[in-house]
Design a protein that fits this description.
single chain; alpha+beta; three-stranded mixed beta sheet; 16 helices; 14 strands; globular
């Protein structure tokens, strides 16, 4: 006998995802936003700040950096998909536990060449140096004589990627080069209580669904950067908390407690306009992007080498890309619409562009439409 599944239309899906990710009702603090989003990608440092600013009230770039480097209630780590993310610092143990069952690219390379023991010893010596000094960069590691191999000093991670994934280090404020701080000097008060590997990933799956559902196990594997067989194991252990729903003929899943919220009436979504910047969490959360981006403009948003453009959304659907150029005299924002923007959308973009410039403490110098 076939099951009769609850059905939701795509507008209800968009409304749920925008609302749960803080784009309709803002979070009280950037730390809460980072927790609910399970981190925001920070390959481009200001992009993570803009993602948090879009979900909190009046966050500025200076405040964002103060939370990272002064108050240290936010922390920058390599996380899901092996990419840089900003997390709430309270989640630092959880993120390290999430990665505990896998090796970094550099550790795997050493293993393939039968040099893993030497590499592990190098990481241990680098940890001791970092513990002694509190903060070091790649030039310090090179000058120490511990290693001069370019792979180990790679700007993509190297030895520091393993110091971070093992919970010894986080990214610190830059001083001409990328710097890393030892956890015991950066946040000595932080309770270090990482769960086991599977428990960490099941908790992350639960949080992922709370903010990004409806989703499939393939979506979660994509977002997490995990092998599908592993994602299926974690999914199976959470199955008692899940409910299937039908979205345009596709079976997807939500947390059981969230079904009614998903099926609520969509309010004024049609009038909502959002300017979301590069590597926006919603653009990274699902393998199938057609819910948020037209297939005809997919390559305009999702570029080669993993670059993801900023987008303008109307009713939760992309209708333009955008970038900014920051100069001392002001901010210039360049729009590339997929079609002519309506006057209402253009006015909303102009207003939000002012807010983006204010985030950087700059006037809006120009809004260019190409």
């Amino acid at each position: 006998m076939s099951r009769h599944l609850p059905e939701a239309d795509i507008q209800q899906v968009r409304w749920f995802r925008l609302r749960r990710s803080g784009l309709i009702t803002p979070f009280a603090t950037p730390e809460l936003a980072a927790r609910h989003l399970v981190g925001v990608q920070a390959q481009i440092h200001p992009a993570a700040g803009l993602a948090l600013r879009n979900r909190t009230a009046d966050l500025t770039f200076a405040q964002y950096e103060a939370l990272l480097f002064t108050a240290r209630t936010l922390v920058k780590l390599w996380g899901q998909r092996g990419t840089l993310h900003v997390y709430t610092t309270d989640d630092w143990p959880l993120i390290c536990a999430m990665l505990a069952g896998s090796k970094s690219w550099w550790a795997r390379k050493a293993e393939r060449s039968d040099a893993l023991d030497d590499y592990v010893a190098l990481v241990s010596r680098a940890e001791a140096l970092l513990r002694e000094r509190g903060v070091i960069g790649r030039s310090d590691l090179r000058a120490s004589g511990l290693t001069d191999e370019q792979d180990h000093l790679s700007p993509w991670g190297g030895v520091f990627a393993d110091l971070v994934r093992h919970g010894y280090a986080c990214h610190a404020a830059r001083d001409g080069e990328g710097l890393f701080a030892h956890r015991m000097s950066w946040r000595p008060d932080l309770a270090w209580n990482p769960p086991d590997y599977d428990a960490a990933n099941i908790e992350l799956l639960r949080r992922y669904l709370r903010s990004y559902a409806p989703a499939t196990v393939q979506d979660f594997a994509y977002w997490r950067g995990a092998k599908l067989e592993l994602a299926r194991c974690w999914w199976a252990r959470l199955e008692a908390e899940l409910t299937p729903v039908q979205i345009n003929g596709v079976e997807m899943f939500v947390l059981r407690d969230d079904v009614d919220d998903l099926l609520t009436w969509v309010e004024d979504l049609d009038r909502r306009v959002h300017m979301l910047y590069r590597f926006e969490p919603l653009l990274l959360a699902h393998k199938d992007k057609t819910w948020i981006a037209p297939a005809s403009h997919y390559k305009q948003i999702f570029r080669i080498a993993g670059h993801i453009e900023g987008v303008v959304l109307e009713a939760g659907y992309a209708l333009a890309t955008w970038r900014y150029a920051r100069k001392a005299r002001g901010l210039t924002i360049t729009l590339e619409p997929f079609k002519k923007l309506s006057q209402r959308v253009r006015r909303a973009v102009e207003e939000q562009a002012q807010g983006i410039a204010a985030f950087f403490g700059l006037p809006l110098q120009e809004l260019v439409e190409q």
